[in-house]
What we know:
Elements: H1 5-20, H2 26-48, H3 54-63, H4 72-90, H5 99-109, H6 141-153, H7 159-173, H8 180-194, H9 207-220, H10 224-244, E1 252-254, H11 255-261, H12 266-274, E2 281-283, E3 286-290, H13 291-304
Antiparallel strand pairs: 1-3, 2-3
Bound molecules: adenosine-5'-triphosphate (ATP) and magnesium ion.
Amino acid sequence: MPIDERLFDRISKKRDILNSLRPFDMGAMHRLKASFDVELTYNSNAIEGNTLSLSETRMVLEDGITVGGKTLNEHLEATNHGNAIDFVESLVGKGEITEMDVLNLHALILDRIDPHNAGFYRRHRVRISGTNYIPPKPSSIPDKVKKLYEMLNMAGGEPIQQAAMIHMEFVNVHPFIDGNGRCARLLMNLYLMRSGLVPVIIQKRDRKRYIDNIIASQTRGDHVPFINFVARCLDRSLTIYIDSLGGEDGNYITLAEASKYCRYSQEYLSLLARKGRIDAVKFGRIWKISRKVLEDYVREQNGRN
Ligand SMILES: Nc1ncnc2c1ncn2[C@@H]1O[C@H](COP(=O)(O)OP(=O)(O)OP(=O)(O)O)[C@@H](O)[C@H]1O
Ligand SMILES: [Mg+2]
């Protein structure tokens, strides 16, 4: 098992809690989806270089407002990504995922931005800036993507690992001239959702780690760091889902509130959170922690002293 045991346990528990909340409250689900889609769009596009902020992305997606000083393409990337998420969700209950589904997804990502290439495999060689990796030549793409379609439809393995490997396979083939990262992240989410899990958000602030892990997979054939990276993102998503959908464990409080319940200062709790020593989650810019996690941590520390 490539996934860290403690992390895997935590994910399994959270998945069970989330499942116990089904059927979800439709209103809460609707609100969650709205804010989650904005966060997903903001981060995926920011990784690619789009300069819209989180709140600007929200204005574009939710209110259809244009933002002064931002290019038309940056606006289109936001609305296109919003449409692409909806499309991916429409594929969750579908039978087989086909090549046409993936081409349609790509067509949505580059819609009105690059009509010549939207929905078509690349006809030229590409380089990935900042890396030495050279993706395969265009004539080999139709053959290479076959494995990808098989992976997208494969069932029975460990879904987090499988989803991460779909992402890796996709970026390695780099079938399109542009938009490969955004497609890869959405297809990874499609697989997670088809496996009964929730989508992950690779955050812009983790961009370096994300790319370093991809390169480690490529150069050393060591997929473990990337798979664990995806697992940590899933852990965070599960917490957000549980919190938004009203689970028992969803009793999340800010670190300022938490410091009132224990002898640790907000600053110290924040340090523990950043170092991953306590299972805190970042909601926007604010770290939060569940009361239960806080109580367990305090008890564990008291036991030591
Ligand atoms: N060394 C590498 N080998 C393979 N893929 C890589 C490597 N480095 C980065 N990548 C992937 O390629 C993506 C960039 O490809 P591309 O520009 O086609 O996609 P994008 O969607 O336009 O941009 P981005 O992925 O940055 O959002 C990165 O996000 C990452 O997923
Ligand atoms: Mg690009």
